[in-house]
Amino acid sequence: MDEVDQVVARVAALDLAKASLVVCVRVPSDTPGKRCQEIRTYETFTRSLLELADWLRVERVTRVAMEATSDYWKPVFYLLEAEGFECWLVNPRQVKHLPGRPKTDKLDAVWLAKVVERGMCRPSLVHPAPIRRLRDLTRYRRTLVRDRTRERQRLEKLLEDAQIKLSSVVSDILGVSGRAMLDAMINGERGPRVLAQLARTRMRTKIGILEEALTGHFGDHHAFLAQTMLARIDAVTADIEKVGAAIEAAMTPFRAEAERLDEVTGIGICSAQELIGEIGVDMTRFPTPAHLCSWAKRAPIIKQSAATTRNGSAGKGNPWLAATLGEIVVGVSRTHTFLGERYRRIARRRGKKRAIVAVSNSILTIVWHLLSDPQARYQDLGEDYYTTRHTTQRRQRTLIRDLEHLTGQRVTLQPHAA
Question: How many angstroms separate the CA atoms of 277 and 144, rounded?
Answer without folding.
Answer: 17
